[in-house]
Amino acid sequence: MNNQDFTTTIVVDQTPKEAFNAINNVRGWWSEEIEGSTDGLNDVFTYHYKDVHKCKMKIIEFVPDKKVVWHVLDNYFNFTKDKSEWIGTKIIFEISEKDNKTQIHFTHLGLVPEYECYSICFDSWDNYLKMSLRNLIATGKGQPNPKDKEREFNEQLLKQHGKQ
User: Fold this and answer.
1) Which helix or strand (DSSP H or E) is residue 120 part of?
2) Which whole number is the average pLDDT over 128-151?
3) Please, are residues 106 and 8 in contact by the beta-carbon 8 Å criterion?
4) Structurally, how many domains does the chain consist of?
5) Are 5 and 111 a contacting pair, CB within 8 Å?
6) Distance between terminal CA atoms of the chain?
């Protein structure tokens, strides 16, 4: 049986170190809503997009300029019947040099076509990686999901009133 996990590769002119640093700047290419640290072994962080997608990741492998692996500890999609999708999967970034360029091989191990979210996740990862991450590496500016201004405003109000 063929490997059906989602995988893609991008190639950039920058160094493996620049690619590694950009990958770990998750707020710079995936979402400005990331909470927690994203740049060290055993760091745990959360991602959310409105009320559509929330997940919690732990960095379980962190090899400077070569590899980063996130383990999905928890996940929620508001559009799937199976609430276990993504939980226990691994998101892998492997960095290598090829023909004086840097290659980033991405695998979402466990994201398979049988998942309800597969086509949406495929399109999303494809966009985040091939557009936002690539641009962050090449220009220093990605296109992450912006902060939810209404949520940010409400959190500031709660802090001002000592309720958080």
Assistant:
1) helix 118-127
2) 91
3) yes
4) 1
5) yes
6) 51
DSSP 3-state of 94: strand
More confident residue, 162 or 21: 21
Residue type at position 98: K
CATH code assigned at 108: 3.30.530.20
Q: Is the dihedral of CA 18, 91, 37, 31 positive or negative?
A: positive
- How many Cβ atoms from other residues are within 10 Å of residue 59's Cβ? 21
Global pTM value: 0.89
SS3 annotation, 53-87: EEEEEEEEEEECCCEEEEEEEEEEECCCCCCCCCC
How far apart, in whole angstroms, are the C-alpha atoms of residue 26 and residue 142?
10
Taking only the tens place, the pLDDT of each residue in 91-106 is: 999 999 999 999 999 9
Q: Inform me whether the pLDDT recorded for 129 exceeds 80.
A: yes
What length does the chain have?
164
Residue 134 pLDDT greater than 50, yes or no: yes
CA dist., res. 111 & res. 132, Å (int):
20
| pLDDT value at 127 more than 90 | yes
Q: Is residue 1 part of a domain?
A: no
CA atoms within 13 A on the CB side of 101: 11
* Pairwise CA distance, residues 137 & 142, whole Å: 8
